[in-house]
Amino acid sequence: MRIHTFPLGPLQTNCYVVANELTNEAIIIDAGMQPRVLLECAANYQVRAILLTHAHFDHMGGLDLIRKKTEAPVYIHPNEQEWLTNPDLNGSSRWPMIEGVMQTDRAEHELADEQILSLAGLHIRVLATPGHTPGGVSFLIGEHLFSGDTLFAHSIGRTDLPGGSYEQLITSIEEKLMPLAPEIQVYPGHGPGTTIGFEKVHNPFINGNN
């Protein structure tokens, strides 16, 4: 497995092409704005799916173009299906000066907690991690966790936007992510990567570190 990381758009949203080089297939995790460089990478593979950790505008702003270029189906948690079609929910109407008001078609597939997806020859475990948004999810592929805006290096996702809940986010992190093996590599929605073990010890928001 090879992971290509692309910080996209004005908010430098980390989006990922996760490739199975044995089969020349890939999945895309999150669909940020201005996705040209991501699409150049994705063109080297058969893209089997676009997985969204959540539907804030900076994570779905490039979805129309990525869908058109890859013809891959989209997966999202059902709590955020309507966010794709509603600029008030995805936040783009709140900050139209960034990249304009955004809406796109609904996703073809809905995700469930602890679901196992088999895509591009990869086994992907879906972890429901709401709090930053009501339908936030993280994806675990082997020893690689794609945490969206749930967990960051030394930090956590903001919860002051509509649908956010600090208590729910902390519960998601402590019950879903912190029990994972310490060597798990974390690929967040913004900023540098980290590991579960490092965050257990150093993240000031994790129980026992504050």
Automatic annotation (TrEMBL):
Gene3D superfamilies with a match to the protein in the record: Ribonuclease Z/Hydroxyacylglutathione hydrolase-like
UniProt-listed SMART domains: Lactamase_B
Function: Counteracts the endogenous Pycsar antiviral defense system. Phosphodiesterase that enables metal-dependent hydrolysis of host cyclic nucleotide Pycsar defense signals such as cCMP and cUMP.
UniProt lineage: Bacteria, Bacillati, Bacillota, Bacilli, Bacillales
Protein name in the entry: Putative metallo-hydrolase
E.C. designation(s): 3.-.-.-
Entry keyword Oxidoreductase: no
Coiled coil: none
